[in-house]
Amino acid sequence: MTFEYEFEKQKNDMIGIAQRENNHKRNYLFVNRFQAKHIPVSPSKALKLFQKLGEKVYCDYKNKKTTMIGFAETATAIASTVAIHSPDDVYYIHTSREILPSKHSVVEFKEEHSHATQQILYCKKVEEMLFQAEKILFIEDEITTGKTILNFIEALQKKGIYADFGACSIVNSMDKQHRDVFHEKNISLYALLNWNESISDKLFLDNTIVNEKMKRELPSSVHYMTLYTTVNPRLGCSAKEYQMCCMHLAEQIYNIVCSNTIKSILILGTEECMYPAILTGEYIEKKGICKTVKTHSTTRSPIVPRVQQQYPIFNRISFESLYEKGRKTYLYNLEKYDIVIIVTDAQNYNKTGEQQLLQSLKSYGNETVTIINWRYQ
């Protein structure tokens, strides 16, 4: 497969503008069609995009004690890939909105424009991964004002954590005023696409909103597997070690689930657990056993679906999270596949959320589903 990353020429193919639901702080968001979050895409295409972002930063991080930090939930797969493909073995952590043991909590900070504003950074080896870091790189899918990153840096510095800070993203839409703040604070910026166009207030005047489709039936064939890992990126880890664990997971899933009779397959991640699903999809894709392999993930981000030319979200299902009762999550642009494989790391597993997700898949004709619960030991 070939995919040319001429980003300025392809930005309208890659980036769509969608409406956030009931968010008055920022009523739009960038939806990246190749990111494997909201929209199903070839896993190889997504990983090539993330690797290309990494190439923007590696020369400045060579032979340095580096910790790379991804933002939950949307940027976890991007950050994993950038860290894993670094020429040096770096430390990798991603922030989380999950509640983990408080003894590992380092800082909390606000993502002010988000649907879920609270972000927490946990770390099991704080001294080694943060206090001794020469460079700390924050990795996002998009940076609009940079306020979240500045909040994060301020919280770290209050703890006495100082390093050479940088921030990279697939899309950067900061104006000159916000960029100047980063320059004054000596925070390096890297991006694949600098978005300088203003977002029109009239973009969402069309009120043709798509209604959710939901059947109260379950797929005819549902299988369950529990697999284990010793590496938890929410607590910090060696990026190379995380890659090995994710690759082992992909091999296990392929050997147990896949066969030569499959024509189409979806590998579905859940919320912050994106990278293991994408890597599993790429592994299956490279085996060449089926014509179509797609991947994306569930999300806590509420986006309005519309029937509108070039609008990126055309259907939506909402259901309880696998991670927590009462938490609302979403799945967009769902299609029909021969097999759906769900890869989740939900530790306090919500069976109600599972049933609703299965009903969602059934609503779009998906009859064969395997749920992989990847548990931390």
Write up what this structure looks like.
The protein is of the alpha/beta class and 377 residues long. It is 27% helix and 28% strand. The chain has nine helices and 17 strands. It has helices at 7-14, 43-55, 76-84, 126-131, 147-158, 176-184, 239-257, 275-287, 351-363, and strands at residues 15-19, 28-32, 66-70, 91-94, 105-110, 118-122, 135-143, 164-172, 188-194, 221-229, 237-238, 264-270, 292-298, 316-320, 328-332, 339-344, 368-376. The strands form five sheets. A six-stranded mixed sheet has the order 9-8-7-3-4-11, with helices on both faces. Strands 10-17-16-12-13 form a five-stranded parallel sheet, covered by helices on one side. The relative contact order is 0.16.
Sum up the structure in keywords:
377 residues; alpha/beta; 6-stranded mixed beta sheet; 9 helices; 17 strands; globular; disordered N terminus
Q: Layout of helices and strands, plus pairs?
A:
Layout: H1 7-14, E1 15-19, E2 28-32, H2 43-55, E3 66-70, H3 76-84, E4 91-94, E5 105-110, E6 118-122, H4 126-131, E7 135-143, H5 147-158, E8 164-172, H6 176-184, E9 188-194, E10 221-229, E11 237-238, H7 239-257, E12 264-270, H8 275-287, E13 292-298, E14 316-320, E15 328-332, E16 339-344, H9 351-363, E17 368-376
Helix content class = 25-40%
Instruction: Report strand order across the widest sheet.
Output: 9-8-7-3-4-11
Task: Output the structural class.
Answer: alpha/beta
Helix/strand order = HEEHEHEEEHEHEHEEEHEHEEEEHE
Short description:
With 377 residues, this protein is of the alpha/beta class. The chain has nine helices and 17 strands.
